[in-house]
Amino acid sequence: MTFRHLFLKNFSASSANTHAVYTKHDVYTHIAYTVEQFLMLPSITLGNHEYEKSGEVYIPLSICQQFYHNGSLSPANESFRIDTHVDEECSLIYPLHPFSTITANPLNFTLHFERLLAVTVKFTLKSVNLETVQYHELPDCYVFNIMITFDNKPHSGRIGIDLDNDVQIYECRDWTVTGASQRDMYIMVLFDIMVILILLLSLLLCTRSVKAGVLLQFEYAAFFSRRYSKRVSFSDRMEFINGWYILIIVSDVLTITGSLLKIIIQLKAMASYDLCSILLGTGTMFVWIGVLRFMGYLKKYNILIITLRAAFPNVIRFSCCAAMIYLGYCFCGWIVLGPYHTKFRTLNVVSETLFSLINGDDMFATFKNMQQKSYVVWLFSRLYLYTFVSLFIYMVLSLFITLITDTYDTMKHQRLDGEPVSDLQAFIMQCKDPPESGHFSVNETRFLMCCFTHRTCGSDD
């Protein structure tokens, strides 16, 4: 935002996506304004921005125009001749070079507007982030590669202007910090190492438990097939695999990786802030979701977990069917309404708009902003929006909620009337001591403890 206000003429935050020029004079004026601000930067900036150097020479600002190799247009005669090969011309302006006031074309740089595709202004700035000093961390040195684009690809008489910058973060080469201790940084590194070691232990234990469950599942399936000549159902097989352990394993892997990246960033070896934050944030989310596991031990509080687990297969199947209808509306809106409505210009924006409509958000604006240049398309948009809202809010969303509420009622009645016993539960119920008792005894039943002792029962056992 700072660079946009510094280098874009007449920029305002409200016009960030619509900043544009409409005359040749304005194009030259805006380019000249950017160059002037660049040359005057040390005396006008509120930050500590400076020019990039290559050795002892400042890196210049470059102005490049891309245009068709050759061509002539005659709209009045409805004729044109275009060579679609793209040429590029560039002009370099070095910092600390005298620059006059703005005129119609102060750069002596002629643009080929009839064939012009784009004009790009590129330059590099450096800065130091002093904010981290107060947190007892070494400041970072930033390199900003800034590019301002004047986009004329549509050739519509409107040239959009946008500024983009790519930041690279490095450890400053020559620094001296007085009045602050760097011990806090190393304490944080030691804390991260301790967290990693604890998570590695957790990962090892959970992996071992999952492996034991999988082995026991195969042993039970083989025994059941041999003893009763029956196949073990998928739901019974999943009883041997603890989903909470899988969640903890994923959380540990994400947090360990994120913590290693965090240590590397703190040591100024790299600056992958986005990846580090995604890993740590997702790992933290899974940790807090895992706290629900302990609520499952309280019978009055585990109804949410039981309901979600029971409803999950039906919800997934229902969502797959509803997604087909949703995608159909997305493609239809993008193809038909895209030229007439800003909320249907791209497939991604269409999906966001329709999802907002399902939740009752921004509904009036979606109807109101439809352009009425074509009565047929306007009438189609009304039919399209009314049918989508009616179908998804009154039917699809209601059915989605009904699936979950029905599952909740079913689980509630099962808790009162007693749950149906599966083959696995019936097999376990033959034990004199239930699994949750912590100890097991073998009575005179022939095959009572085969699965719990990890032995294969023979015909004579």
From TrEMBL:
Keywords: Cell membrane, Disulfide bond, Endosome, Ion channel, Ion transport, Membrane, Transmembrane, Transmembrane helix, Transport. Residues 275-411 form the Polycystin cation channel PKD1/PKD2 domain. It is found in: Cell membrane; Endosome membrane. The keyword Protein biosynthesis does not apply. It is a multi-pass membrane protein. Residues 1-173 form the Mucolipin extracytosolic domain. It holds the Pfam family MCLN_ECD. One of its GO terms (cellular component) is endosome membrane. Coiled coil: none annotated. It catalyses: Ca(2+)(in) = Ca(2+)(out). InterPro entries: MCLN_ECD, Mucolipin, PKD1_2_channel. The keyword Disulfide bond applies. One of its GO terms (molecular function) is NAADP-sensitive calcium-release channel activity. The chain crosses the membrane at residues 185-206, 244-265, 271-294, 315-337, 383-405. It comes from the Eukaryota. This is Polycystin cation channel PKD1/PKD2 domain-containing protein. It comes from Phoxinus phoxinus (Eurasian minnow).
